[in-house]
Amino acid sequence: MSFDLIGTIIDRSNNYIDGQWRPAAHRFDVVDPATGAALSSVPDSGKADAQAALDAAAAALPAWRALPAKVRAQHLKRWHALVIAHLDELAQLISREQGKVTAEARAEVIYGAAYIEWFAEEAVRSYGDIIPGPAVGKKMMVVKEAVGVVAAITPWNFPIAMIARKLAPALAAGCTVVAKPAEDTPLSALALARLAHEAGIPAGVLNVVTASRAQAAQVVDVWLDDARVRKISFTGSTDVGKHLARQSAATLKRLSLELGGNAPFMVFEDADLDAAVDGLMAAKFRNGGQTCVSPNRIYVHAAVYERFSELLVRRVSALKVGPASDPAAQVGPMINARAVDKITRHIADACARGAKVLTGGKPLHVEGSGGTTFFAPTVLAEADHTMLLAHEETFGPVAALFRFENEEQAMRLANETPFGLAAYFYTRDLARIWRISERFESGMVGINEGAISSEAAPFGGIKDSGYGREGSRYGLDDYMQTKYLCMGGL
Ligand code: ADP
């Protein structure tokens, strides 16, 4: 199928409601962080738009839920094929509104598409059970059914992948969806909706409503207050996640909350240091450190601390920062000025408390780009738990090295956080691998591995990092409810 996806999305983006592109009364600008210039504008929606989207999703639910899973899977497969067919355009759109470099943007499209394919395949495997009953003349059965209308609220750091991994399991399960993408990156979500439309996904099954930061609560509150929305699936900050949990309590909605992280990354004295540096580079500097599984506290055993920091500094200082339009760029701009402020504040606080900048440490001017949010990839030595960056997610290209003397101390420090999303460690001691894996208070553990995300794996956290799992066979359950059937008189 050939059409100008980027042109349509950038020039004429409107809300996607009930299979139609509908304008709202107001619009707001979407900015390219690499240039600082407005790239497009999208509807700044309000209550009426949110209501229309919900009405459409509720109306579409009975027919979509009643389709054989195989038919829903066929819709998802067509959608997946279109996403892959438009890989380059989608990658370009991601880079332009979010800033990540081209290779990473392409990887994101493939990663996001993989969730659509995965859940197309899982849709047909939502088996129930026959329970051997304790009484004569009675049969007991369990069936799985779609929870109903789902509201999906997503962040800006992975504009395609974060929404794909909510929409795909929801649609596969037989749910219909109202979605509000992040205000910084609404275009990629609208492009996905365009492709869903082309794939023949029926009107009302998927609805996308965009809104500025100021209007986000107006839109989402409509969905929170309405009992027809049976589930909220949210990825974003812990504060907003807790707000959604409180507000949805009145109608007892189900929740999947993928919230902030503060991942520890431990390097033991027996680790393969080259592998540990490779793993850290992949986990820490992907998307300029703007990922929720990005290592935020790097604990290195005193015996290998100097060697590890030397190897790391060599790699980090060689990273090329620039816009996605520069094919050699490896780290793009930060999403906005707020992000740069936080990174700068964390570094200043750490330095005031004794940390040393080994490389980077400040915003960067990239000649000719116009962007004002580039930041030099940074390594800080001598970090400790008196510093802000030990307790808050920096969400930027800052690798802070903490020195530790023994396993017990490292474990205590690693778990000294309310968050529990990802944790990583490098060691060659098999007994220690099991010990540490069990002791980490986190939903995911990378063992001698920095790249843990996959559509085949359950992604999610514990503690203040939320609950619910995305991806894998567990991911479909979050969008299904269990119904028990008891047949008597047999
Ligand atoms: P981040 O700090 O990464 O921007 P947020 O939690 O602030 O994370 O934002 C994630 C998503 O939540 C975005 O789509 C944003 O618009 C939305 N959001 C922010 N505040 C609210 C709110 N009060 N109610 C509903 N959604 C919100």
Automatic annotation (TrEMBL):
Has the keyword Oxidoreductase been applied to this entry? yes
Q: Which residues form the signal peptide?
A: none
Q: Where is the Aldehyde dehydrogenase domain?
A: 22-484
Pfam families in alphabetical order = Aldedh
Q: Which residues form the active site?
A: E258
PROSITE patterns noted in UniProt = ALDEHYDE_DEHYDR_GLU
Q: Would you tell me the protein name for this molecule?
A: NAD-dependent succinate-semialdehyde dehydrogenase
